[in-house]
Design goal:
Keywords: Eye lens protein, Repeat. The chain is mainly beta. It is built from 2 helices and 14 strands, in the order ββββββαβββαβββββ. 6% of the residues lie in helices and 43% in strands. The strands form 4 sheets. Strands 2-1-3-6 form a 4-stranded antiparallel sheet. A hairpin with a 3-residue loop joins strand 4 (42-48) and strand 5 (52-58). The protein starts with a strand and ends in a 5-residue tail after the last strand.
Length: 178
């Protein structure tokens, strides 16, 4: 199991909230998050309640202040929810599709891909089926830009999920010992 502690001030000061599972509304415990300590496991933190908005991946470590987190690539300054990423040690496998509802060109993916356009000759893809493992998708090649967490399941339409103007350009397996 994982454990993440949110503090309302920088440098682990002020009130705190200990979390060992998913939390859809951190603001019911703290009015703001100034620093974070991940004692064990891996977590996705979200800009809005109910796991919505921009996301950022956190592994075990200390995050002293939001300014430092923003310099690491986090593009938002509020954290309202978090999701624990369960430990996983199996194989990784997913299928990506050119169109909604698993239509069009399909590719099976089992490892990291730093540039989907170059490797698969796909400028865009609109649905996927994650069969095994936990993955991070990025909006730019080489694991840059905004990121999204995908766990096993069927994702029939990125547009219906609120990603209508989003193009995923790289993907990485979450292989950390979470």
């Amino acid at each position: 199991m994982g454990k993440i502690i949110f503090y309302d001030d920088r440098n682990f000061q002020g009130r705190s909230y200990d979390c060992m599972s998913d939390c859809s509304d951190i603001s019911s415990y703290l009015s703001r998050v100034g620093s974070i300590r991940v004692e064990s496991g891996c977590f996705m933190v979200y800009e809005r309640n109910s796991y919505m908005g921009n996301q950022f991946f956190l592994r075990r470590g200390e995050y002293h202040d939001m300014q430092r987190m923003m310099s690491m690539g986090m593009i938002f300054d509020t954290i309202r929810s978090c999701r624990m990423i369960p430990p996983y040690r199996g194989s990784y496998r997913m299928r990506i599709y050119e169109r909604d509802n698993f239509g069009g060109q399909m590719h099976e993916v089992m490892d990291d891909c730093d540039n989907i356009m170059e490797r698969y000759r796909m400028s865009d893809w609109q649905s996927c089926h994650v069969m095994d493992g936990h993955w991070l998708f990025y909006e730019q090649p080489h694991y840059r830009g905004r990121m999204w967490y995908f766990r096993p399941g069927e994702y029939r339409s990125f547009r219906d999920m609120g990603y209508s103007n989003m193009r995923f350009m790289s993907m990485r397996r979450i292989t950390d010992i979470c």
